[in-house]
Amino acid sequence: MSSLLTQVAQRLGRAQRVAVLTGAGMSAESGVPTFRDAQTGFWSRFKPEDLATPEAFARQPEVVWNWYAWRRELVGKAEPNPGHRALVDLATRVPALQVVTQNVDGLHQRAGLARVIELHGNLMRTICSRCGRTVETWTAEASPPRCLTCNGWLRPDVVWFGESLPHDALTQAVEIVGAAEVALVVGTSGLVEPAASLPRLALARGAFVVEINLTPTPLTPQASAFLAGPAGEVLPDLVTRLA
Ligand code: OAD
Predict the structure, then answer these.
(1) Nearest-angstrom CA–CA distance, 179 and 17
(2) Pick from 186, 183, 20: which is nearest to 98 by CA?
(3) What is the DSSP letter of 128?
(4) Pocket around ligand 1: residues whose beta carbon is below 6 Å from it?
(5) Is the bond preceding residue 144 a cis peptide, omega within 30 degrees?
(6) Is 120 a catalytic residue?
(7) Could you tell me the fold of the domain covering 33-77+122-158?
(8) Which fold has domain 1-32+80-120+164-243?
(9) What is the largest CA-CA distance in the chain?
(10) How many CB atoms lie within 10 A of CB 62?
(11) 70 and 49 Cβ atoms separated by less than 8 Å
């Protein structure tokens, strides 16, 4: 493991363009639950079709709003972990490092990364489900609260199952990952498209793809290197080994 880490660090040290694709495992050590981990993942306790689809919101808006309000509070109390901070450090050393995240918690930005491509939106932003405006304030009289402009229900600015990803974010992600010499794929099960296809795009373009995860995933057999372990330990270790 130690020589593999050194080898990956050498690759990183030589690379001009590095893409980092992150998933829920990135924030696990900040106390934000993942989705699919047995016992602790959100989807082991809740059904996504009851909470994370437009149909669920239409059927039971109050339940959906309250679930996201609870998650917003949880994320508000969480702090970036050593993995998030290691990526900030790495960004100062690699000329063109870009982070593409599936996470909606904003922890990369709170750790100090200026530019993050958010594929699945951001839980801390709220929009109107009718007029689409971003809304900063609302009265807490109703769940969900109403938009002051059009009276539509407010909702979190996240991508639900069955919805399209933000067009610009996806276009940028494809460009960044497609041009990367080294791609780090951190803490994602790789089961949700289209994000799951990004590491394969990097591989097809000849990138050195490094997977960092607690357990193997469908990507692991194809990855150029698999670093087993928690992101909050592996990433700082990797950055320390940069020449
Ligand atoms: P998952 O919950 O599917 O996968 C989390 C991955 O992180 C698993 O492979 C774990 O083994 C790994 N993991 C857990 N803790 C870790 C740690 N400390 N260090 C490294 N790896 C760790 O989460 P995602 O792949 O992000 O969609 O899920 C993708 C999407 O599915 C999410 O963005 C969300 C969800 O439904 C939307 O919200 C639209």
Answers:
(1) 7
(2) 20
(3) E
(4) 23-25, 28-29, 34-37, 41, 48, 102, 104, 120, 158-159, 187-189, 191-192, 212-215, 217, 230-231
(5) yes
(6) yes
(7) SIR2/SIRT2 'Small Domain' (3.30.1600)
(8) Rossmann fold (3.40.50)
(9) 59
(10) 12
(11) no
Compute, in angstroms, the gap from residue 42 CA to the centroid of ligand 1.
Answer: 10
Looking at the chain, the domain(s) classified CATH 3.40.50.1220 span 1-32+80-120+164-243
* Mean pLDDT for all residues in the chain: 96
Residues 180-225 have pLDDT tens digits of 999 999 999 999 999 999 999 999 999 999 999 999 999 999 999 9
What is the structure's pLDDT at 38? 86
What are the DSSP E strand ranges found in 141-207? 154-158, 182-186
Count of residues making up the chain: 243
Q: Are 222 and 73 in contact (CB under 8 A)?
A: no
Which pLDDT value is given to residue 85? 98
The predicted model gives 50-66 an average pLDDT of 96
Distance (Å, rounded) from C-alpha 110 to C-alpha 84? Answer: 9
Q: For the chain, where do the domains classified as CATH 3.30.1600.10 start and end?
A: 33-77+122-158
Cα(147) to centroid(ligand 1), Å:
32
Tokens standing for 176? Answer: 């960044």
Taking residues 230-241, what's their average pLDDT?
Answer: 97
Closest residue by Cα to residue 236 from 21, 34, 84: 84
| CA dihedral of residues 102, 108, 110, 111 (deg, nearest 10) | 160
Which tokens in the block code for residue 132? Answer: 């689409």
pTM of the model: 0.96
For CA atoms 233, 76, 126, 36, the dihedral sign is positive
